[in-house]
Amino acid sequence: MARCGQPRADEFIGVTMAKARSQFVCQECGYVDQKWMGRCPDCQAWNSLVAETMIAPAKGSNSRAVTSGIEPTPITRVAEDGLPRIDLPFREVNRVLGGGLTRGSVALLAGDPGIGKSTLLLQIMGTLANVKGKPLLYISGEESARQIKLRAERLGVAHDRLFVLPETNLVDILAHLEKSPFELVVVDSVQTVYWPDLPSVPGSISQVREVADRLIRLAKQKDITVFLVGHVNKEGGIAGPMALEHLVDTVLFFEGERGQPYRILRAMKNRFGPTDEVGVFDMTNEGLREVANPSELFLKHRPKNTPGTAVFPVMEGTRPLLVEVQGLATHTSYGVPLRNAVGFDKNRLTMLLAVLEKRAGLRMETQDVYVNVVGGIRLVEPAADLAVVAAVVSSFLGKIFPTDAVVFGEVGLAGEIRVASRGDARLKEASKLGFAQALVPPGTSDPQKSIRCQTIDSIDTLVDFLR
Predict the structure, then answer these.
(1) Which of 376, 120, 378 is nearest to 257 (CA)?
(2) Is residue 204 reached through a cis peptide bond, with omega within 30 degrees of 0 on the bond before it?
(3) CA-to-CA distance for 323 and 383, rounded, in angstroms?
(4) pLDDT tens digit string along 96-116?
(5) What are phi and psi of 242, to 5 degrees?
(6) 10 Å Cβ neighbour count for 11?
(7) What is the DSSP code (8-state) at residue 35?
(8) Per residue in 313-351, pLDDT tens?
(9) What 3-state class would DSSP assign to 202?
(10) Region 11-30: what's the mean pLDDT?
(11) How many C-beta atoms lie closer than 10 Å to residue 467's C-beta?
(12) Crossing angle between the packed helical segments 385-397 and 459-466, to the nearest 10 degrees
């Protein structure tokens, strides 16, 4: 019992203490509920709801008071200092970022385990340390300092200006960043770092959100460029809340096929540059090596005199790349024929096969059809339609598609071939690599007359060409 004149344990000068309450948060999509469920009703993931303690605001607290001291400013009076960037030693990374890392920005790098995220960032940090005066900091929550040193020596990027901090407590990390003038900081990975005031485990929704928010605020205040490494879930998306992707300035994906040495870096979000550029790397024993001419890499082992292959010039940002599209049509052993595609949309493949059957008279309902895009490239632009159709028809008829030809164009439901954008750039790249002819849609022009163009205006024209 409290003595006379003494406040009770839950009262302090008329202000009630903050109360803690529990709620269940899905660790896959961030769905919140007050009760536990075996399956998330939002993303349908099983056993993903975890109890997390939330602190409710205390009664009587003045949360509306302005504490930052920042006043609204007319947009015409905002200082114009441009976007100073850090020129990275990797030309392919600079291409994806739009000219280098913007100072004070926060970038998120995600990818499958073992794809080479840590190797890429350590190579960037070590090479950058040779040309920059300010120190760089590599924070690791998954490896010890000795492990990082061994990998840096194997890659040949060990340097005195590259500092290593094996730490997961965010309080200690922020203390080091406050007192030392680091220019570039890598946090590998954000799912291993935790804020000690939160009761939830590292990697949970609330921890990832809190850690990212505090690192972003410090980066903006101290003009420190930060690279966050993120895990991916089993669906291939970035683990943690979608708010993590909204908070950062840039989201990069590092991807590649299992068993293949190729690695592709692409931007999914970029506040300071394009989102349609890609960087291509080759994984070697000495680390990642930039590929100056990706087209030669993707066509390196292309089979000759074999039906079912075609070369397509895909536009990745401003850069045209030549990739091999493989098609296989074989008699089905089932009542319903199979349609599978790697690197191409399966639903669009089904549509193209329907157009082939209706407009060109090819009996595709008796064929299992498979499509593969070599090198791990994903074809999303409609201009790839004609290359896919050419590869499938070549396999179906057993006729070899010309090895010195490229093909591109969009296929309509009426069987017509529609014009593709940037046709001149596609033809220029094909001519540079020694291709002599191109099958193009009507309206495509080659100002330099560097390659022989044959117009394909319909599916029938393509089939007649291959017969």
Answers:
(1) 376
(2) no
(3) 13
(4) 999 899 999 999 999 888 899
(5) -65, -20
(6) 12
(7) S
(8) 999 888 899 999 999 999 998 889 999 999 999 999 999
(9) coil
(10) 63
(11) 8
(12) 40
Buried b / exposed e along 43-61 (16+ C-beta atoms within 10 A):
eebeebbbebeeeeeeeee
Instruction: Look at residue 146 and give its three-state secondary structure.
Output: helix
Sheet holding 20-26, edge to edge: 32-33, 20-26, 49-55
- Using CA atoms, how far apart are residues 4 and 312, in angstroms rounded to an integer? 86
Which helix (H) or strand (E) covers residue 165, if one does? strand 162-165
Which SS3 state, helix, strand or coil, does residue 385 take? Answer: helix
Strand-pair category, 319-331 with 15-16:
unpaired
- 143 neighbors 168 (Cβ within 8 angstroms): no
Quote the pLDDT of residue 66: 52
Q: Cα–Cα distance between 245 and 42 in angstroms, integer?
A: 19
Q: Report the candidate in 118, 121, 86 with the shortest Cα–Cα distance to residue 104.
A: 86
Of all residues in the chain, the percent with pLDDT exceeding 70 is 89
Higher pLDDT, residue 84 or 144: 144
How many angstroms separate the CA atoms of 343 and 278, rounded?
15
Question: To 10 degrees, the CA torsion angle through 17, 20, 21, 22?
Answer: 180
> Looking at per-residue confidence, does 243 or 367 come out higher?
367
